[in-house]
Amino acid sequence: MNNNTVLNPTISVVVPVYGCLSCLDVLCQQLETSLRTLTKHFEIILVDDRSPDNWWSHIETLQNKYPSVQGLRLSRNYGQQIAITAGLAAARGDYVVVMDCDLQDSPSLIPELYAKLQEGYDLVLAKRVERHHSGFRLLAAKLYFGLLSKLANEPIDGSYGAFSLLSRKVVDSFLLFEEKERHYLFILRWLGFNMGSIDIVHQERHSGRSSYTLSGLIRLALDGVLFQATVMLRWIISLGFLFAFSGLAGAVYFIWQHLYYTSLPGWTSLAVLILVSTGVLLISLGIIGLYVGKIFDQAKQRPLYVVDTVRERKLTW
C-alpha cells in the first residue's frame, strides 16, 4: 500500500487531558501496545482542555515518539464532558474508545471491550467493581445516583465511568446532541442502543490527584440532574400544594381555637411559619431559575467549544 495513502483508522481512542502531564508518555505507550493486538490502523486523540501544566508544549515530542497521536487543543477550559465531545467529533475510527488520562482504567482492557462489542453490542461500558476513591466521594456518589434514580424513575448504576467503546453509529448519534450542559453517560443511556458491559478493577492513579474539586463535582452532579429530568419542577408543585393544604388546616385549627378557647399570641409559631415558608419559596424559585438559566444559555446558540490548534497524526499507513 502507498505510504502516502491516508486511511480512516479502525479504532480511535479519545482521551481528555487535564492535569495529568506525567501520565501521558506511559499512557501512549500502553495504548499502542494494547491497540496493536487488535489492528495496526489506530489513532490516539489527546484533547488538551487547557491543562494548567502546559501539556501542549509536549505534543511534538509525543508525536515524534508515537506517530499515531493526534493533538487537539481547545481555546479554553470547557470541562471533561465537552472535551469528550470534541474528541468524538475529531475521531475517524470505525470504533471509538473513550477513557480518562490518569491510567485508573487500564488500556490493556481495550481488547476485552472490543471482544465484548463483537458479541452484537453497539457500545460497551466498563463497570468498576472495585474503586479507589475516598470514602466521602464513594458515599456522595452513592447518594447522588440514588437521588438520580428516583428522579428518572429507573435504576441508574453509578459504577460506570467514561471508559467505554462505541461503534461508529453510536458516535454519530451522540454528536447530534446540541445541549451545552451534558453528561457523557446519560446521553449514551438516552440513545438506547444495545449496550454491553465488562467488569474491571479501578486502579490507583498513576500520579497526581483528581482535577475535580468538591465544587466541580457538585456542579457536575447538578448538571446531571437537570439534564436527566424535569421532575424537580413537579416536586415543587407538589410541595406547594402540601404547604397550601397545611396552611389551610392550620387556619381552620387556629380559628376553631380562637372561637372556643382562650388563645395566646403565637409569635414563635408565626415566625417559624414565615421562615419555613420563605425558605421553601426561595428554594423553589432557585430551582426554577436553574432551569430558566439553562434555557437562556441554550437559546444563545453559542458553539459547544472552539478548537485552537490541531496537530494531525503522522502515521498514514
Architecture overview:
The protein has 2 domains: 202 residues, Alpha-Beta Complex (Spore Coat Polysaccharide Biosynthesis Protein SpsA, Chain A), CATH 3.90.550.10; 69 residues. The mean pLDDT is 78. It starts with 10 loop residues before the first strand and ends in a 6-residue tail after the last strand. It contains 10 helices and 8 strands. Strand 1, helix 1 and strand 2 form a beta-alpha-beta unit. With 317 residues, it is an alpha/beta fold. It is elongated. It has an 8-stranded mixed beta sheet, with helices on both faces.
Supply database-style keywords.
317 residues, alpha/beta, Spore Coat Polysaccharide Biosynthesis Protein SpsA, Chain A, eight-stranded mixed sheet
Topology:
Elements: E1 11-17, H1 24-35, E2 42-48, H2 59-65, E3 69-74, H3 80-90, E4 95-98, H4 110-117, E5 123-130, H5 135-152, E6 160-167, H6 168-174, H7 184-191, E7 195-201, H8 214-228, H9 231-260, H10 267-299, E8 307-311
Parallel strand pairs: 1-2, 1-4, 2-3, 5-7
Antiparallel strand pairs: 3-8, 4-6, 5-6
